[in-house]
Task: inverse folding
């Protein structure tokens, strides 16, 4: 038995919805593209911030190492003076 009117005369890809299915798909694709771009920009910002934090940590560690060395030499000098 054949049902009348199922897909007859409708261009391929429309599935009888007169373009509504395709337009919904396009809207979803546009939304996905927009959200993807937003996520991409956020990831880029976080990446560059983490790189800056890494540079700052290296600089702070260098300063702390220098301070430690200076304190050690001062402690040695004060130890000699008190004898």
Result:
């Amino acid at each position: 038995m054949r049902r009348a009117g199922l897909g007859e005369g409708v261009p391929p890809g429309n599935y009888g919805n007169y373009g509504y299915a395709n337009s919904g798909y396009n809207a979803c694709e546009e939304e996905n593209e927009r959200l993807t771009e937003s996520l991409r920009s956020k990831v880029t910002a976080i990446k560059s911030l983490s790189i800056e934090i890494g540079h700052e940590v290296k600089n702070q560690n260098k300063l702390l190492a220098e301070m430690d060395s200076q304190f050690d030499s001062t402690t040695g000098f004060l130890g000699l003076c008190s004898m």
